[in-house]
Amino acid sequence: MTDATPLLSVRVLRKEFPLRGGLFAQEVQAVHAVDGVSFDIAAGETLGLVGESGCGKSTTGRCILRLIEPTSGEIWFQGRDVTHFEGEALRGLRRDMQIIFQDPFASLNPRHTVRGIVGEALIIHKLAANRRDLDDRVVALLETVGLQAGHLHRFPHEFSGGQRQRIGIARALAVQPKIIVCDEPVSALDVSIQAQVINLLEDLQEKLGLTYLFIAHDLSVVEHISDRVAVMYLGRVVEIAPAALLYENPRHPYTEALLSAVPIPDPTMKRQRIVLQGEVPNPIHPPSGCHFHPRCPLAEARCSREVPVLRQNEAGHFVACHVRG
Questions:
Q1: Is residue 282 predicted with pLDDT exceeding 80?
Q2: Reported confidence tier of residue 4, pLDDT bands at 50, 70, 90
Q3: Which of 24, 143, 209, 265 is the most buried (most CB within 10 A)?
Q4: Of all helices (H) and strands (E), which one includes residue 242?
Q5: How many CB atoms lie within 10 A of CB 193?
Q6: Domains of the chain (ranges plus CATH)?
Q7: ∠ CA 35-38-40, rounded to 5°
Q8: How far is CA 289 from each of CA 10, 18, 162, 294, 316, rounded to the nearest angstrom?
């Protein structure tokens, strides 16, 4: 949904997780984790994807990478529908699309050295001519992310959380991808380390021409790194806009509530907090119509019957709302 030719286009993506029960473990219900998500990402852009925990952000990212198979929808990458790629075609796609995981402790194999963790992709994709070339490439990757050649033969437990995440970034960069899904890459790190990792990601993007889908729940981090921001609620995208425009003029009531909870780093300033009533609905039985209508202060009768679609109300600002769309 940008003017530039998109590198990645997601169209009506859906993912349902079956819940089984009974004697023959038949599907009795389904969790509607992702429900008709659509967006574009241009080459060299960072799209922030934000929302409450459990809204489907990480599932969306993993479906795009085919780490989880989507239930339906289309994923277009460089003009090709990669939704049903298999075998060698899917292996080739892995070179262009990588991920940085949220947990720097759980995402690294504790039995492998840094050489094995970062070099594995180089071996799988036959990018290293020999053992020495492999070592040279891994050392170059480590130095790119701020580590040293002496770290090559160490194990993950010998590093801090920030250093481990740098190893994860080096692993993602090993195959020279075009797009990286950053799945809450700084949420498990100390605040001071978060800034270092964010700055590293921005430097790498400028240097290597990378494209990011940056998934996070920390809206201040997303504002800093993103060109545009997409807001998700209960499996659906409710608003997409350039970052500055979204933070200055949020249109969807849910986006307003999210932004009202962002702390202001100035004790003399206060922000009027919007407290939503009720609980987040169960994704097994989501509300009809607009998923947000049971908690929305602006809800009308049609909100419970009709599903709002993303409509553009100003340059690049899309809102899925019957009242403000």
A1: yes
A2: low
A3: 143
A4: strand 236-242
A5: 18
A6: 6-319 (3.40.50.300)
A7: 155
A8: 22, 22, 43, 10, 24
Cα–Cα nearest to 309, from 320, 298, 299, 301: 320
Give the whole-angstrom CA distance, residue 34 versus residue 72: 10
pLDDT tens-place string over residues 59-109: 999 999 999 999 999 999 999 999 999 999 999 999 999 999 999 899 999
| pLDDT, tens digit, 9 for 90 and up, residues 5-57 | 799 999 999 999 999 887 788 888 999 999 999 999 999 999 999 998 889 99
If one counts every other C-beta atom within 10 angstroms of the C-beta of residue 188, the result is 19
Tell me, what amino acid is at 34?
Answer: V
The DSSP 8-state label assigned to residue 292 in this structure reads: T
Alpha carbon separation from 192 to 1, 161, 199, 222, 261 (Å, rounded): 34, 12, 11, 16, 21
Residue 28's identity, in one-letter code, is V
Q: What is the DSSP string of 243-280?
A: HHHHHHS--SHHHHHHHHTSPPS-TT------PPPS-P
Q: Which residues pair with 324 in a beta bridge?
A: none
Q: How far is CA 3 from CA 46, 101, 185, 206, 315, in A?
A: 15, 30, 28, 21, 10
Which residue, 291, 178, 296, is CA-closest to 232? 291
Longest dimension (CA), the chain: 68
Residue 32, class by beta-carbon neighbours within 10 Å (0-12 exposed, 13-18 middle, 19+ buried)? buried
